[in-house]
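Re: the 416-residue chain
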Amino acid sequence: MRRPAWWRFFGPAFIISIGYFDPGNWATDLQAGSQFGYTLLWVLSLSCLIGALVQNLCSKLGIATGKDLAQHCAERFPPWAAKILFVSAVLSMMATDLAEIIGVAVALHLLFAIPLWMGAIITAVDVFLILLLNRWSFRAIETVFLTFLTSVSLMYVIELFMSDPDYEAVVRDSVLPSADIMDASALFIAVGIIGATIMPHNLYLHSNLAISRVRENLAKPRTLYRWSLWDTNISLTFAWFVNAAILVVAAAVFNPIYMKTGTVIASFDDAYKTLVPILSQGAGLIFAIALLVAGVASSTSATLAGQVVFEGFLKMPNVSPFLIRVGTRTVTMAPALIAIFLNAPPVEILVWSQVVLSLQLPFAMLPLVIFTDDKKTMGDFANRAWIRLLLWPVTVILLILNLVVLGQTIGWIPSG
């Protein structure tokens, strides 16, 4: 069947959107829904809107300049500054992969009783999956990610209906702020939702993926960017739906338990074991399979981001992409395997991975804002005045919120 012409422009954001419902997001959504019901849905909506704004800047940078964020950082900043940004990017990828690997390992354990350490090693298969798909074209990778995105969305449509939520509350709380945010614990979780949504590796990766359409000479840059806006916004809408569905299911099924007993269902294992007796064995199975698919997909996108970072900062055009991917996966898997062998609780691992991501976000976001504001770099694509007026306050607020997450997690700021 012949695809419509507009389909040629879609694809990069399919890969990016996976990072918006990775296992780290699952952990924060489960805790938010379990403890506060539907009242933090608006935070999730806001974080996805901010994410869409930032991701559109990434695609604009790649389309307007033909270079990704990592390449710009390596070329535009002094060597010492570029090295700091590179180390920060590697740390953020390690933190990201930590969450993805733990998510996949837990899902495999729930489905097949596979030990966590063995499940973590199995995640290395994504390196070979990408290599296999590259034998056809990068479009094949995008198609696989579209399949991931669609399958997880469909599974959570089923899970959503099975949980029978309060749909009126879902619609209301998705757009209207709640007074619950004034509670210190709610604020902590809300900041965690925002901090887990915009991840540094996605900024590097999206700016690189956007260049693939430039290389294909599909249209003029301005037309490519207009289609990129549709690609990004539609894909992230699906990602918002998956995130929201996880929180809604947690609110419908787990919040009543919290209201009666004060028990917060936040871990994947507890969520699975609680869903089965309350809903059905099928609901627990759907939960575990969706977690597995989301973990594998987000881990694969993190590996692609690793290749972009290493090639961009270290300028390695003659090194085999396969070797770069294997090296990246080896580096990023190490913390996860160490944590598993030390029997660290998966939930605590996920929390700390989000803290590390929060700490690294400024090192990726600030260069992005600086480059897209620069008329010499962007030409007619430079951010307009209204975007700057919106973007800089959002950037500052995000940085402050992420510092709050860090301070509360390590005890410098009271979390209630």
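Residues 5-410 form a domain with the Amino acid/polyamine transporter I fold (CATH 1.20.1740.10).
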